[in-house]
Design goal:
This protein is of the alpha+beta class. Helices cover 21% and strands 35% of the residues. It has two domains: 47 residues, no CATH class; 146 residues, Nucleoside Triphosphate Pyrophosphohydrolase.
Amino acid sequence: MATIKLLEQLTENRFVNLFHVEGENDKGHHSNYYVASRAKTKEDLMITTGKNVADGVSIYALYGEKRDKVVLVRQYRYPINTYIYEFPAGLCEPGENYKEAAERELHEETGLNFHPLDVDDLYELPRFSTVGMSDESVAMVFGYADGKISDKYQEESEEIQVVIADRDEVRRILKEEHVAILAAYHLQHFLHDDDPFEFLNV
């Protein structure tokens, strides 16, 4: 396993920071690596703590009486300078568990009410989103949504359109639009499974 020789913080921002890592791997190769992180300081990095703690949640919510629609957001993202379809998501606040964060974030982004399912930990433990450049970790939360769409709880910095998509619309989105990888994977299964959450009962 590689040995880290130097770790330094290069930025001090609210939502994401850049860290410089100097290391040597088990082949003797020296690297200068740059890590983007939600951590506020280098003491909070997983490099330092060794702990995988969820920075945020991604919310897979089914909607409708037959639970045959899925809640998506079409959101403008600066890194790609265009819109992308994603699951509603957001950062965990201090002291929040995954389900509490998911309920709050879905309501803030969409106006809808979220009813999370109790599932085995293996389905919602935090996983790394883009481990090649970040230690960001996200917990997946599954459940059902109801209520009426509203944008009045969104932050001014957000440019979000709420989309309630049936299978035909999901098929079109996957063929024609930009889609975040986590959402795309689940949406592919949503297209073909009568009960998209059946796998949670296995």
